[in-house]
Amino acid sequence: MLSKVKAYLIKHDVKPSIQRIAVMNYLFNNRTHPTVDEIFSALSPNMPTLSKTTVYSTLKLLAEKGAILQLTIDEKNVRYDACIDPHAHFICLGCGCVHDVAPIYLDKVHMEKYKNLNIIETQVYYKGYCDECLDNMEGKVKESAEPDSHLKQLNS
Amino acid sequence: MLSKVKAYLIKHDVKPSIQRIAVMNYLFNNRTHPTVDEIFSALSPNMPTLSKTTVYSTLKLLAEKGAILQLTIDEKNVRYDACIDPHAHFICLGCGCVHDVAPIYLDKVHMEKYKNLNIIETQVYYKGYCDECLDNMEGKVKESAEPDSHLKQLNS
DNA sequence: TTGTTACTTTGTAATCATTTCAGTTTTGAA
DNA sequence: TTCAAAACTGAAATGATTACAAAGTAACAA
Fold first, then answer.
1. Which fold has domain A1-83?
2. Are the beta carbons of A123 and B118 separated by less than 8 Å?
3. Which CATH superfamily includes the segment(s) B85-156?
4. Consecutive sets of 10 residues in chain B, 156 residues long: mean pLDDT of each?
5. Which of A44, A50, A60, B2 registers the highest number of CB atoms within 10 A of its CB?
């Protein structure tokens, strides 16, 4: 079962230590874009000797090797994503949850124009309020929470 | 001269104090996406009583009111941008410089699909190496600095 | 003008995510 | 088995950001 994770690490030029397998496996099974703390807290009970420093260094290594994505959509905490296929992210300004938002394709003509920029990674972040939070607001705070001046939709 | 800045603040429902005008004016004149520290260090000499806390709270207020943009493209520091028109950002993984990358238009069909997400802000971040850094590399480290596994271009 | 009230600014202290580092353990090749 | 390199650990340091209480300022009515 974990041999798949092991193979994945090796494929990405990461030596598969117990700790690295545990972190990578957690990310495969938890697509909630967890923070370092969440990952550490989840693994710690079953791995009492695990150090948070190791979680930090492992995530850094995995991101460097392209095995995972590092998201800065949340100003408070860096989040990690095992899905490295092209897709965008949505964060709810109410509850802070982060969702995948399916593959995004940027305008071909536009991308052509910036070929010379040597882009090796693209991040698309959407910020707004999820359905659940909107329901909880029920019009009362909604207005003040969404000032027009915040509207910056980039669709043509 | 500063009355324009003043009017801009009032337009965005921000009371124009001396400090707020100074911060906003700095952002208007410095389109380098400065960090809190850069803004504070630049203003401090001419405003010896200015507190860094004030710079923090002012930037937070301005962003909340939609007068400026808050960028999390740089993992180290939050950066601020006086230009609130739709545009994307590029950060150089070598020197850390941040450039504007002209307006980006996301695929219309795609956006239609996510109308229900109540998106009120969109951020598009590109990461790569600027020309200057590429020149300095001259092929030697270039290879190791750009592993294929990092390639995640989102253009179709 | 004076008094009152709310808002803003200031500086210090606290917080919290992240990094550094030195010592220890593990791994893997000879 | 031995040994050097790599990985892990935990404590301490760092550095950005926030909390907070006190001082200053603006608005405005009496």
1. Arc Repressor Mutant, subunit A (1.10.10)
2. no
3. Ferric-uptake regulator, C-terminal dimerisarion domain (3.30.1490.190)
4. 89 97 98 97 97 98 97 95 92 90 65 73 90 75 38 33
5. A50
